[in-house]
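Researcher: I'd like a structural prediction for the single chain below. Treat it as a standalone chain; there are no partners to consider.
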Amino acid sequence: MDEKILGMGNALTDVCVSVSDATLDSLDLPKGSMQLVDEARSRSLLSRLDAARMCAGGCASNTICGLGKLGLPVALIGKIGRDAIGEAFEQNLRDHGVEPRLVRSGSPSGTAIALVTPDSERTFATFLGAAVELSAGDLDAQSFADAGWFHIEGYLVQNHDLFRAAVQHARDARARISIDLASYNVVEENLDFLREIASGGVYILFANEEEAHVFTGEEDEQRALSALAERAEIAVLKLGRRGSLLARGAERARIPVEPVEAVDTTGAGDLYAAGFLYGLVQGAPLETCGRFGAHVAAEIIQTLGAHMDDASWARIHAAYPG
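Model: Treating it as a single chain, here is the predicted structure.
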């Protein structure tokens, strides 16, 4: 395949660390929350944590890195600082087979500190830094020219000009557009805008239950799935431990989760999207795409962080039904 899968998202370096509930309490971070912090608070937290694992993160980055490890040609647009964390982010992309299409900033690179307690619950302290400075002016048609697919995370939707410009560049390049709605509160705050974007033509919408409810106004999961499918060629409704629901036109599929012991659920939805997109690009049936997405998600939750070792990827490659 010569066409690239191009992704765009917040270029955040994930800092993953296992902590006790007592340690979490001492850091004054509500369990299960996602707190935005400033640079000073981020540095303070990092100085108090040991044995942290650092890797390129962010919703779209995780998906694109997964697709790179699966062997597809991929690239990522994002913004990093001119610092050691930014350099590490770029190198990590390359290590995953991703072509970096990164913009540099004078601000520090962003970080997402993920504190994982023994029950696999994640608590985030996120410093957006340079990542949030990505703007419409940073984009050009050339960056999208070789894209056959364009995957964008919903977290970027708060910058309407950036999101609209990116989607328009993708449409001009005739790329198939995939949107991960990413967060129910972001969807709630930008509902009319997201519906406007979807009305212009979207190939895939990924959403969890809360995001789908807000986006469609439907409480029932089947009605929410159908409402999503009215706005995209393919709708993917993620239901956590209850698996996922898929729709394409009149076609429906229910995909169960694989029973594994979860260590950390960071990146589960992002890697599900990677497996699903991989199957789709290979021309697999809808249900096969969903099952492979579930398999990749099952592998990632057995490790700390959103990146896996070579042994995990070898098992994933061996399991692909195509």
